[in-house]
Amino acid sequence: MRFVMSSSSKHVSLIFTFCFLALNHFQHFGSNAQLIPQDEVKILQTISDKVENLNWKVTQRSCKGDRGFDNRKISRNEEQIIRNVTCDCSFNDGTVCHVTSIALKGINISGPLPDEFGNLTRLQIL
Fold first, then answer.
1. Is residue 89 within 8 Å of 34, Cβ to Cβ?
2. Shortest CA distance to 65 belongs to which of 34, 38, 32?
3. By three-state DSSP, how is residue 26 classified?
4. What highest taxon heads this organism's lineage (predicted)?
5. 27-49 in b/e burial notation, b at 16+ Cβ within 10 A?
């Protein structure tokens, strides 16, 4: 007994096979979300609330790759204002980001720095 495929069945089979292989191949190019751990988000938001003129709205998706967030450099007369939060997103195969550097210059923080800075375990530069 011999099995013979019709021309239309061959086309359907070929299209199905092509789609399956294409989808299987492209799944490796999907973007993995790079997220800040929720406890770190809470710490950063607490710091923002205590240092009233930061106005950070931190979410788990605030880090955009290794660029970080709130990157601003403003020059007013001779005064320079720098706000920069740098992230390292190399953790857990590039899916987790941690804040490694925070630069705050010229924003006139009054009083002591919030203790919560000490809870950012990956922070290397402040």
1. yes
2. 34
3. helix
4. Eukaryota
5. eeeeeeebbbeeebbebbbebbe
- Does residue 32 lie in a domain region? no
Q: Percent helix, strand, coil in the chain (nearest 5)?
A: 35, 25, 40
In a domain, 72, yes or no: yes
Both tokens assigned to 11: 């086309």
49-93, pLDDT tens digit by residue? 888 767 778 889 988 755 567 677 777 676 677 778 899 999 999
Token pair in block for residue 36: 């800040």
Q: Is the pTM of this model over 0.85?
A: no
Q: Per the structure, how many domains does the chain have?
A: 1
Classify burial at 117, counting beta carbons within 10 Å of its beta carbon; exposed 0-12, middle 13-18, buried 19 or more: middle
